[in-house]
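Sample entry (395 residues):
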Amino acid sequence: MHPLLKPALRRGWRNLNTVQFGVAPAHAVVLGPVDVASGSFLALLDGTRGLPLLREEGHRMGLAEGQVDRLLDRLTRAGLLDDAKGGGPAADALRARGAVLDRLRPDLAGLAVTDPAPGGAMRALAARGEMRVQVRGAGRVGAVAAALLAASGVGQVDVCDGGRVEPWDVAPGGLPPESVGERRADAARRVVRQAAPGRPPRRSPGGEPEAPGGGSQVSLVVLAPRDGLDAHAPDPAVSADFVAGGVPHLYAGVMEATGVVGPLILPGMTGCAGCLTRNRTDRDADWPRLVAQWRSGRQRQVIAGELSLTSAIASLTAAHALAFLDGGLPASVAARCEVSAPGLDWRRKPLVPHPHCPCGAGRRTSDLQESVAEPEEGPSADGHGTSREGQTACT
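Predicted structure, serialized as tokens:
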């Protein structure tokens, strides 16, 4: 192990023997008491030294026998210590690709903040490279979200959509102006390849991109339809195969002046689009009639979707997807996050499984909802001279 204080957490001394790591309350940690020798020793934790050399340096600085190990253990339990050479073989392979890793260093630093285990951030970043995400929809939300996922290190991002690029599909970070008139799927795939920090995915003889290592299992499907109605009131038939196959899927889109991210559906564990439809029908008996008219009516040529709002939804969609791919449970699990102009205040609406829906969601839903619930505000001590302030928000 080559101990490294997580560089993303800025350090400041509250007083002569108390140091705070981090600025934002959600991840800030206060460590104390810290004596003068231990405080000086912190400067050596830059990832260039192994444990034997650190022990020798600590002894020369006046630290007592075993004090270096106790300090490192204390920092590890507080989630402040990383391992500059940790993460396993996949992480070593990523380190060997210097140019790729340089593109992803901000992502690595961010993962180090949220993953408390030494080497965990590098392991998670390397794992992204083995994952496959399918994005259904190449409009202002879907194309931008797909590009963000690829740029964040996801190894394979497939984009599915029909038709040709219209002028109003163009968005910064998504489909460029020169793609107008091209097939949407082709244009979006090119955007994804250009955004990826490494080499573009290899093509199979049939023209479909191959997953790294030849795998084909989809880790997540992002449903980002160009028509926001299909995200606001999703058709259960569209996701029936995902529910039956146990494929996690996340809805996102903009309907008129309201953006939605979620629900992120974990088949068998959370409610599905069918539950959402049934719950709405229970509250409003006219809902099915309205949805049928909206879907069958003549579609307007241009669908409302103000650029800054669609870009925000695309970014948040990618963030929720990455949080899930990295092993977390974002606020969109079993819920949907909504924001409406002009107030732009976020709301989280839980999705409760419907008792008559055949999706198979059971008791584990309540456990999931508890695990993603917002913690109480205020610092919490861990009993070893550290404290952490934590708070979460839908955004």
